[in-house]
Amino acid sequence: MPPLLEVNNIEVVYHPYILVLKGISISVPEKSIVAVLGPNGAGKTTLLKSISGLVKLDRGRVTRGWIKYAGMRIENRDPEDVSRLGVIYVAEGRRIFRELTVEENIEAVAYAWGVLADPELVYRYFPRLRARRRSRAGYLSGGEQQMLAIGLALLAKPRLLMLDEPSLGLAPKVVHEVYEGIKRLHEEEGVTILLAEQNARKALEIADYGYIIENGKIVMEGPAERLREDKDVQEFYLGLKKAEGGGYRAAKWYRRKKRWV
Amino acid sequence: MVDSAALAVITFQSTVIGLVFAALGLGFNIVYRVSKSINLAHPAIVLLAVYVTLVASSYLASHGLASLGFALGTLVAAVVGFATGVAMEITIARPLRGRPPVALIAATLGAYYILKGVAKAVARDMWTTASYRLPGISISLGPVVVDATDIAAIVLAGGTLAALIVLHRFTRLGVAMRAVAEDPYGASAYGLPVKTLTMLSWGLAGLAGALAGVALASKTGVEPSIDLYVLEALAASLLAGLDSVAGIVVGGLALGFVRQMSNYFLMSWLPGFGDAAAFILMLLVLLVKPYGLFGTERIERV
């Protein structure tokens, strides 16, 4: 069976000349969790945005390669059309409607999906939000905002849910709670998940497969357990190795880092 | 001393003109919310609607439908206003999405002149001062005499305001429109029909402008320079906060009262100071509350 999402050797260019992705290929099988890891500015967000079509709103476009979702080519389509196909993107920084109450946030998104949307779904996975129904979303805690953002995406009955840095700026305990929610909805709703994270440790805990992006290219990929074991990943992304200190280590680190790029 | 009868009359007139100003300003706010830009063509939409009503009602009158002329003319103007708003969204606002707001402001200025030309073409030999043919009713409430022009203005302006405020605050469609207004980018990621809702917002702004324009022209008479009142209504919008829909009622009434009161009391030594007084009020308010009385200051969690 072909994977649900296939990204084949795409290049993405912003503002006619700025090349951000330089030939990226990933594949996301149905009902799996795939993680895209990498440092700030590596291109994780651009990758997710070019799948969802949102690059267009930033005046970017896919100039080479193709993106196939459920057998359809979707590169450079309108974000609204892509979301209609069941690909929902939860942007980083907890994109919710801050001026609206929690309830109104849910109503607004439910409006888009008509009878398909079941507002209860949000409260079922994130019961904490029920008590905050009538407060303005801007006044929720960071964790609650992230839960609301994921909850809103759920209303669209996504087949492929793309989460961009769900752990960003959250306390470890809250990160855990958010990730529990993600795991549960993956298991109970059967949603396929594509996860972009800097928090590699957390992402590799729930992912089946992972890609590491640096500088707009994939430098490493493999099943999650293998990435967890890998020496380089441990050192650069999981922070497991103890620092030996000194300039020599820094130079060596730089060389090894270079090797990937 | 001011006698109470005159005060009652002036209070009533301030309220009527205040409602009209609120309805005229509403279009600025609706457009600002979705496109973050001031629609300088809004006065021309109003102008167009005012003359469409005049032409349509006189056409109907010449076909023996004089009694329905004004009502049907208003209806035609409403449709024209809605269509103009939609057309502006498609031709100007949509291609300029994601560009700096200044580009859109400049484009709407161009649209202002185009629409003014259209209004002239529609009016032809009626491009003069005129007034709508309204039934000669008048009701006396103590010292206040309410005539058909007042009733038309109150019904049209008040109705427009009430309908659009209820739509925005209390319907699912309205909530979705508010979501799109706050964050179109996020809204499209969650699958909201951003394009349709933005277009609808522009259309509703045009519709509100058209109905408010007819309300205004029933009071002041139809004249080619009627669009200047709409610029004055921009003060009501700024006073209320450009992104507030319900606040416009307060902004409009404040503008109406300050304008009429200062016209009345300052007439003898500062004639025609009313318009300036309204803008002075606006400046004072903006100094204290830069987002206007009801404008949202972005929520920042600390």
Please characterize this protein's 3D structure:
The complex is a heterodimer of chains A (261) and B (302). Chain A is an alpha/beta fold and 261 residues long. Chain A has two domains: 221 residues, Rossmann fold, CATH 3.40.50; 32 residues, no CATH class. In chain A, the strands form two sheets. In chain A, strands 6-7-8-3-9-10 form a six-stranded mixed β-sheet, with helices on both faces. In chain A, helix 3 packs parallel to helix 5 and helix 5 runs parallel beside helix 6. The longest helix of chain A has 18 residues. The mean pLDDT of chain A is 87. Chain B has 302 residues and is mostly helical. Chain B has one domain: ABC transporter involved in vitamin B12 uptake, BtuC, CATH 1.10.3470. Chain B has eleven helices and two strands. In chain B, strands 1-2 form a two-stranded antiparallel ribbon. In chain B, a hairpin with a 2-residue loop joins strand 1 and strand 2. In chain B, helix 2 runs antiparallel to helix 3 and helix 6 packs across helix 8. Chain B is globular, with a radius of gyration of 19 Å. The mean pLDDT of chain B is 89. Chains A and B meet through helix 2, strand 6, helix 3 and helix 5 of A and helix 6 and helix 7 of B.
